[in-house]
Amino acid sequence: MPPSRADLNDSVNFTGIDRVIHEPARLAILAVLRAFESVDFTFLLNQTELSRGNLSSHLSKLEAASYVAITKEFVEKVPRTLVRLTDAGRAAIASYRSEMDRILASL
Amino acid sequence: MNRERTIDTVQTRAMQATARDGITEMFLGGMLLVFGVLFYLETLLAALGVLIPLGLNPLGKLLKRKYVYPRIGYSKVARQPHALRGIGFAALAFIGVILAALGLFSWILGRDAGYSLWMSHFVPSFTGLIMAIGPWVVARTYRLARWYVFAALFVTGGICLPLFHFATGYTAVAVQTAIVGAFSLLYGIGLFITFLRKYPVTEVEHAS
Questions:
Q1: Domain locations in chain A?
Q2: Nearest 5°: phi and psi at A3?
Q3: Any idea what DSSP says for residue A1?
Q4: Quick check: B112 contacting A, CB < 8 Å?
Q5: For a tag on chain B, would you pick the N or C end, based on fewer CB atoms within 10 A?
């Protein structure tokens, strides 16, 4: 019989998980951003396969957590939204990875 | 598959997306082709080859801005200091091996015979090895098999061409460079055309 949620919570401490990153769509966004200095909205849209609204909403949450920086510019009169991972975002991914490793090792 | 590998997969796929347009292959091919022809005509003319990337850089930016970014979006790959360190270390190691081999041949066979053997048989092989470093690093960074093929072409070309008994090692190097360049240029053009057909221009921008 699989262990109940209560049993798991007794043996593993989940409180260290960063909920901002733990959401799959935001994790995918951060994973893409980690390899790039900066990308625009269209590139993120193609890579994450999220809808525009979803992507905007997740980016807003990541920006509020200071994990990404968003800047707007015009290139030949066309607006472009550039997104880049901040140092805090990079550190958060590293800490999330080690936290997940710790939890998975203890399961 | 664990979560960490999934993160890496997402990242690798995104990196590979930036290399789908074939522009790098076209430029590498064009550069090598011109360099090979110049080197064949006159060794000193090949020095002009260093100017080629200066001319290609603005053209590359223009192609990206006009044809690539409107289709798959803009991205700027983060610098890879470890890759640059790897290239630097490998290049220094090869130069060391070349100098050691040249010294050994000259010591064993005498200066003239050693130098002649080096020029006719080993210059193309070592040039091939050195030229393979760049494609090999690109292949590893982007996990793209086609760049391993380019690296292999340089190495095998360098080893096989002396068998055709060219007048000098320089001629063999020129031929090798031009052949790989022509292959890369044609392949890059093919990739670029496929890219333009496969990815239509997307509606520009969004709401954030």
A1: 17-106
A2: -65, 145
A3: -
A4: no
A5: N
Tokens 């850089």 belong to residue: B57
Q: Residue A59 is inside which H or E element, if any?
A: helix A52-64
Integer Cα distance of A55 and A51 in angstroms: 6
Within a domain: B204: no
Write out chain B residues lying below 8 Å of A41, CB-based. Answer: 73, 205-206, 208
Give the structural domain span for B89: 23-46+82-198
pLDDT > 70? residue A10: no
Distance from CA of A1 to the nearest CA of B (A): 23
In this prediction, residue A11 has a pLDDT band, given cuts at 50, 70 and 90, of: low
Domain-located, residue B104: yes
What is the C-alpha to C-alpha distance for residues A35 and B11, in angstroms, rounded to an integer? 6
Rg (CA), chain B: 20
Give the DSSP letter of residue B200.
P
B-chain residues within 8 Å CB-CB of A52?
Answer: 206-207
pLDDT in tens, A25-78: 999 999 999 889 999 999 999 888 899 999 999 999 999 999 999 999 888 788
Residue A37, chain B, CB below 8 Å: the answer is yes
Structural domain count, chain B: 1
> Which pLDDT does position B170 carry in this prediction?
76
Do the chains contact at A42 and B204, CB–CB below 8 Å? yes
What ipTM, to 2 d.p.? Answer: 0.77
Closest CA to B207 of A59, A31, A46, A32: A59
Strand order across the A36-40 sheet: A68-75, A78-85, A36-40, B75-77
What is the fold, at CATH topology level, of the domain defined by A17-106?
Arc Repressor Mutant, subunit A (1.10.10)
